[in-house]
Write a structure and sequence with these properties.
alpha/beta; Aspartate Aminotransferase, domain 2; Aspartate Aminotransferase, domain 1; 6-stranded mixed beta sheet; 5-stranded mixed beta sheet; 38% helix; globular; binds pyridoxal-5'-phosphate; Cys/Met-Metab_PyrdxlP-dep_enz; PyrdxlP-dep_Trfase; pyridoxal phosphate binding; pyridoxal phosphate
Length: 337
């Protein structure tokens, strides 16, 4: 919300990838719309030409997720950055799933990165948090008329012109002095401490998450009780080519797969798991699993589920850092049941 609202206000327009986290979709499509900010959602596979046709004179930014939760689609960062820059606006990407261990979006042209630190960065599900990271690379003064909040005096802050006083830090200083002052979202010292402790092992955990997820995905690919597996690390996955480019060393620990037998079999499978915890949370050190059709999306029938991009048999598994043989054994015994 801060990453967008810092440079867009009532009457402005945003372009966003449609493959994004549900909470972010609601924020942009409903809450921010009520505040007068309109958004055009585009398929991440959109052609460069079609993407360009979506820009309007009042477009202020482009937004997407590097690795979408839960669709697991990879954003072609270069394609989106090129279009955004051609139209004088920054590209903001949510890098929650790959984390900076596996992807550094600035190197591909993104200008601003957001993270839910609640996920891998914290790692242990003990505090909620978020971060906005500005590369300082976007030249706001070049498109001064589009970003008056950064390039004209802010009367609420001693008439400061952020680009003049803070240069490359203009965007992030405006956010802390202005939005955080007026709206809050200041993390408590205790929660900041938890995050700091978690970050110290991020590089070790991410490698293990990926290694474990890849091993489980490869195992499930051959399993007779599994109808499909989605994980960009698999060679025949629809996202594998983009993964080789943007996530060459790994992606994350989240995979999704279908259980033969549909919704009912999936419920039985979930009930039979012993090690994996059934929770909506993802990206935790412990293996967590979710069956949207019987939990978060329970109110929907099969047709509605498919329209929402969630098949009735879909299991989302956030593979943890436990011994991979224990994870595989748990999944196998539950599939057997
Ligand atoms: C969970 C999640 C969020 C929201 O984060 P919270 O910390 O739960 O508010 C945003 N983006 C992505 C990709 C997420 O997975």
């Amino acid at each position: 919300f801060y990453a967008i609202f810092n440079i867009a206000s009532a009457g402005d327009h945003v372009i966003a990838s449609s493959a994004i986290y549900g909470g972010t979709y609601n924020l942009i499509a409903k809450t921010m719309k009520n505040m007068g900010i309109e958004t055009t959602f585009v398929d991440p596979d959109i052609s460069a030409e079609d993407l360009e046709s979506k820009f309007r004179p009042n477009t202020k930014l482009v937004f997407g997720e590097v690795l979408a939760n839960p669709a697991l689609k990879i954003l072609d960062i270069k394609k989106f950055a090129k279009a955004a820059h051609k139209h004088g606006v920054p590209l903001i990407v949510d890098n929650t799933f790959p984390t900076p261990i596996f992807c550094r979006p600035f190197e591909w042209g993104a200008d601003i990165v957001t993270h839910s630190t609640t996920k891998y960065m914290n790692g242990f599900a003990n505090s909620v948090g978020g971060a906005v990271v500005d590369s300082g690379n976007f030249d706001w003064t070049k498109y001064s008329e589009k970003f008056p909040g950064l390039t004209t005096p802010d009367e609420t802050y001693h008439g400061t012109v952020y680009t003049e006083s803070f240069g490359k830090a203009a965007y992030i200083v405006k956010m802390t002095t202005n939005l955080m002052r007026d709206l809050g979202s200041i993390p408590s010292p205790q929660n900041s401490f938890y995050l700091g402790v978690g970050l110290e092992t991020l590089h070790l955990r991410m490698e293990r998450h990926y290694e474990n997820a890849l091993a489980l995905a490869k195992h499930l690919e051959k399993h007779p009780k599994v109808s499909w597996v989605s994980f960009s690390g698999l060679e025949n996955d629809s996202q594998h080519e983009l993964a080789k480019k943007y996530l060459p060393k790994g992606s994350c620990g989240v995979i999704s797969f279908g259980v033969v037998g549909g919704r009912e079999a999936a419920v039985k499978f979930m009930d039979s798991l012993k090690l994996a915890a059934i929770v909506t949370h993802v990206a935790d050190a412990r293996t967590c699993v979710l069956h949207p059709a019987s939990t978060t999306h329970r109110q929907m029938n099969d047709e509605e589920l498919l329209a929402a991009g969630v098949s009735p048999d879909l299991i989302r598994m956030s593979v943890g850092i436990e011994d991979v043989q224990d994870i595989i054994a748990d999944v196998d015994q539950a599939l057997e049941k």
